[in-house]
Write a structure and sequence with these properties.
The chain is built from 12 helices and 51 strands. It is an alpha+beta fold and about 850 residues long. A hairpin with a 6-residue loop joins strand 41 and strand 42 (about 625-630).
Length: about 850
């Protein structure tokens, strides 16, 4: 065996002139992403914050909690309280001098904004909302946008009651009444789809401070179109929201129904809320403009707000994507309104954020077991979707009316849930808490439910931080389906946790996704991709998907489906975090689609690397993080290009035939006589796979895999298993029974993510570290000593980089070395003690002398 390994060392040197690259020291072509907004700060610097913990309610809460951590447990309560308050006051003073210092020096004024919009008057829910600035301790949201007389106004909510003023549009605005407890809400003019500066005045600290933020509210505004004539929607009715006395429609095939729940009169003009009973209507042409839909996939509806002339026939043209290609369908609609029509309140508007209204008519559920739609506040607390992308919970109603829900979450970060506030949960008995039950990688909880169709407080306990966090959850009676006892809301294995390499499990709802909203990337950070394809229009499931880049601490990036429309391919990309609000791809900047986890639908070139750059707002300032993604779809490959049918790449046994490697095309096998402990396979473009069995009759015999299996897992604050860095992955690859090396010629591009499956060695290997005289003799026999730049022993004028048990890492990094080690290197590295090292070194020399003889 020793002789065979010795011969193999010469074989692999012949192929690549290197054996083991020092991946933990020098990573080839693995440059870290940096922020284009802050070039001096690397993405690794921000890695610890990439999946940041939850924002607390306000600055005082944070200061008080931090102060409490420093109190001595055995001190009297009054003394501890006094010290806690003093500590909080000191931290507040310190914060005044540091975190908000730059705001103090800024002239606290804002420019006037242009809040004109082509949107019809009414109330809307923003498609996305991005915010930057401040310290990140206060959460800022936009719950709705109201359009009045063609001007847009946003409701801005701060998760702190201490904000007393908001400056924007060159004016000062006071909080509006009727907001929730602990919230400061403002109604301000907003320039849609543009960055806007707002300055909040807070009294949370010892002195009043102004804090500068930048916000952007994304909403699709109608564009001019000549397909329909502009209507005169003026009316003599007073401004109010009305329920139509009657509504009629004609046209289409009759398979889709159209309704009108309200007509809003604003500024003497009427606007109708039109609802299609299909989630596939994406656009509506009306009154000389094109309006984009507000789609509710759960309810299966598409909603539009358009100008309408009441008591008159109005022509509209709807665009549906339900068929293989988009189709336009013409309808004639009419809404009947009079002075006696019933007025309805603005709060009853489905677009105003009323959960019970927008999710259908309430149902009175009887005794039994039901699958019901459910949702959360989607702040690091997510219900796991099923294969149809539905968020369901299992509800059991007993004869006495008691309701119990089984809720399944996406992550594994919470060990207990409690129906109530976080403060009450901290005081509750363990018997009153709901502990998780694990199955197939999912955590499920059994919870008592106090009511349907209303948001309920639920507290979640982070096992990593040992802290309770406040959330909300809602269960909808509308659409509830009776199911058998024992039915599970989510089936199959949870493939979302810890997948930092190749994705092979997919959740495809087979519904076409439309390209996310985008604007031109003036900085040209990414090149335009050729996403044309010969595939027929439809929705496809990738065969494999992989990604690389960033710090490696992002839990996962997923791609569950490819939408092909008009001969072009679009990928649905989902990040394991909800903090990515923008994505640069194909020369554009795309906005996040929907709520919850960050989702983007972007053009991609299939079976090729695609560069994407995501902006995360998890830190105090937004950062751009660069990734590379590779989507393998065998149907899009030329004939014969598919690797399907071949065995997977393994690390527990040598392959009998060439393994299938994503993005690589197999060519031939190198036949080596009496080769018992290694295999060599050739792939297209000169790439070679060399497999080495180090598990038998060698000091490299791995006992580390059992140890690795028991290593403690780390979780991010969304409950996802933290992915490992490339250095950690490389280290584990060396500890497997079978070590897979990919020898890659210079200038050859590999599919993203392969470095997480194989040790990648790039040619030419012209900078080598030789660890011993014996290994150097092999190199000399090959006539390659000119490529040796550093040694593990002192010889002539060659640079000495330390013995292999006491390496000079700075020297190796500067020389960018690959390395050649004796066979006992791993054993020596397992124990750095001086005496053991000398014993092992002597044993190495004895072994190598025997082998060379």
């Amino acid at each position: 065996m020793k002789r065979i390994l010795t011969i193999f060392a010469a074989v692999i040197l012949t192929v690549s002139m290197t054996m083991v690259p020092l991946m933990p020291i020098y990573a080839d072509d693995s440059s870290a992403a940096v922020s284009s907004e802050a070039p001096a700060e690397t993405e690794q610097t921000a890695a610890a914050d990439e999946n940041s913990a939850e924002n607390t309610a306000d600055e005082n809460t944070v200061q008080a909690e931090s102060a409490a951590e420093n109190l001595t447990a055995n001190e009297p309560a009054k003394i501890r309280l006094k010290k806690g308050l003093e500590s909080a006051a000191q931290k507040s003073t310190s914060a005044n001098k540091t975190t908000e210092h730059y705001e103090e020096k800024t002239e606290n004024t804002t420019d006037a904004v242009d809040n004109n919009t082509t949107l019809a008057d009414g109330t809307y829910k923003p498609e996305s909302f991005a915010v930057s600035g401040g310290t990140g301790k206060v959460r800022i949201t936009c719950s709705r946008v109201t359009v009045t007389s063609g001007k847009a106004y946003a409701r801005i909510d701060f998760s702190s009651r201490f904000f007393t003023e908001l400056k924007t549009n060159a004016q000062i605005y006071k909080p509006v009444s009727g907001g929730s407890s602990g919230i400061s809400s403002f109604e301000v003019p907003v320039d849609l789809n543009s960055r806007q500066t707002i300055i909040g005045t807070t009294t949370a600290m010892s002195e009043v401070h102004d804090i500068i933020y930048s916000v952007e509210i994304v909403m699709s505004e109608p564009t001019d179109d000549g397909s329909t004539a502009a209507v005169d929607n003026s009316t003599t009715l007073s401004d109010a929201a009305y329920k139509p006395d009657g509504f009629t429609y004609a046209g289409g095939t009759g398979k889709v129904s159209i309704s009108c729940s309200r007509v809003t009169v604003s500024g003497g003009k009427s606007y109708a809320t039109i609802v299609f009973s299909s989630a596939y209507y994406t656009k509506l042409r009306a009154s000389g403009r094109i309006y984009n839909a507000s789609v509710d996939k759960n309810a299966g509806t598409s909603t539009f707000v358009i100008p309408i002339k009441v008591n008159t026939a109005n022509t509209v043209i709807g665009t549906t994507t339900a068929m293989t290609e988009s189709h336009d369908v013409t309808y004639v609609i009419s809404a009947v309104l009079s002075n006696s029509s019933k007025k309805i309140s603005e709060s009853s508007s489905p677009s105003a954020g009323d959960d019970s209204q927008k999710n259908g008519k309430k149902k009175d559920l009887k005794t039994g077991t039901y699958a019901v739609r459910s949702d959360t506040d989607n702040r690091m607390f997510y219900i796991a979707p099923n294969t149809k992308n539905q968020k369901l919970s299992i509800l059991k109603i007993s004869k006495n009316g008691k309701i119990t829900a089984t809720v399944t979450l996406t992550g594994q970060g919470y060990d207990y849930l409690y129906m109530g506030t976080a403060a009450d949960a901290a005081k509750a008995k363990t018997s009153d808490l709901s502990k998780y039950k694990s199955k197939n990688g999912y955590y499920s909880y059994s919870l008592p439910v106090s009511g349907m169709d209303t948001k309920i407080n639920v507290a979640a306990h982070s096992k990593k931080l040992n802290k309770w966090f406040q959330h909300t959850i809602i269960f909808y009676s509308s659409g509830a389906e009776k199911v058998k006892d024992g039915t599970e809301a989510v089936s199959g294995k949870n493939s979302s946790n810890g997948k930092s390499g190749t994705q092979t499990s997919f959740r495809n709802d087979h519904k076409a996704d439309r390209e996310s909203k985008y604007k031109d990337d003036s900085g040209r950070s990414t090149a335009s991709v050729n996403n044309s394809t010969s595939l027929s229009a439809g929705v496809y499931t990738p065969d494999q998907f992989s990604w690389s880049g960033g710090s490696g601490r992002l839990a996962y990036i997923r791609c569950d489906k490819i939408t092909v429309s008009g001969g072009h391919a679009y990928a649905t990309i989902v990040f394991s975090s909800n903090t990515y609000d923008s994505l640069k791809a194909s020369g554009n900047v795309y906005s996040k689609t929907g709520g919850g986890l960050s989702k983007f639908v972007i053009p991609v070139k299939l079976n090729a690397n695609n560069t994407i750059i995501g902006r995360t707002t998890a830190m105090s300032q937004p950062h751009w993080v660069k990734y590379s993604i590779y989507i393998c779809l065998n149907k899009a490959l030329p004939s014969g290009g598919s690797s399907s049918g071949r065995a997977k790449l393994k690390t527990d046994s040598l392959a009998a035939s060439a393994p299938a490697i994503m993005g690589l095309e197999y060519k031939s096998t190198v036949k080596v006589s009496k080769a018992k402990y290694f295999r060599i396979f050739n792939y297209k473009h000169g790439i070679k796979l060399i497999q080495v069995d180090v598990s038998k009759n060698t000091s490299w015999a791995s006992g580390s895999e059992k140890k690795n299996a028991s290593e403690k897992k780390e979780y991010d604050d969304e409950g996802n298993v933290l992915a490992k860095t490339q250095h950690e992955i490389t280290r584990e690859l060396y500890q497997k029974k079978i070590v897979n090396y990919l020898i890659v010629p210079k200038g050859t591009e590999l599919p993203a993510g392969l470095q997480k499956k194989c040790i990648v060695i790039r040619q030419p290997a012209d900078k080598t570290y030789s660890a011993s005289r014996e290994s150097l003799s092999y190199i000399a026999g090959l006539g390659k000593t000119k490529d040796v730049s550093t040694l593990g022993f002192k010889k002539d004028k060659t640079v000495y980089a330390g013995k292999y048990t006491a390496l000079k890492y700075r020297t190796l990094i500067q020389k960018k070395n690959g390395s050649v080690y004796p066979a006992c290197f791993r054993t020596a590295c397992q124990n750095q003690k001086y005496r053991q090292y000398h014993y092992q070194e002597n044993e190495c020399k004895k072994t190598e002398r025997k082998s060379s003889s």
